[in-house]
């Protein structure tokens, strides 16, 4: 397993990205669950998160990332 301080942040509102504030980390991946997508809120969600999962999507993308982190 790799050494380092990494955060995989999962949230469903743009305010959730603030959960990483105050932590000492090397890497941060922010995954947003964009359950009520609209053209009006698209820019803020795209700016806030690295990856967006829409419409109550599955955890497949999260599991892929975790597998890459753990297995390499």
- The gross shape turns out to be flat
| N→C terminal distance | 8 Å
Largest sheet: 3 strands, parallel
Number of strands: 3
**Helix/strand order:** EEHEH
- What is the average of the pLDDT values? 90
Oligomer: single chain
Count of DSSP-assigned helices: 2
Quickly give the structural class: alpha/beta
- How much β-strand is present in the residues? 25-35%
Computed over alpha carbons, the radius of gyration is 13 Å
Question: What would you note in describing this structure?
Answer:
- β2 (27-34), α1 (42-48) and β3 (51-54) form a beta-alpha-beta unit.
- The protein is flat, with a radius of gyration of 13 Å.
- The mean pLDDT is 90.
- The longest helix has 12 residues, at 60-71.
- The chain has helices spanning 42-48, 60-71, and strands spanning 6-11, 27-34, 51-54.
- With 72 residues, the chain is of the alpha/beta class.
- It has a domain at 28-55.
- The protein is 26% helix and 25% strand.
- Strands 1-2-3 form a three-stranded parallel sheet, covered by helices on one side.
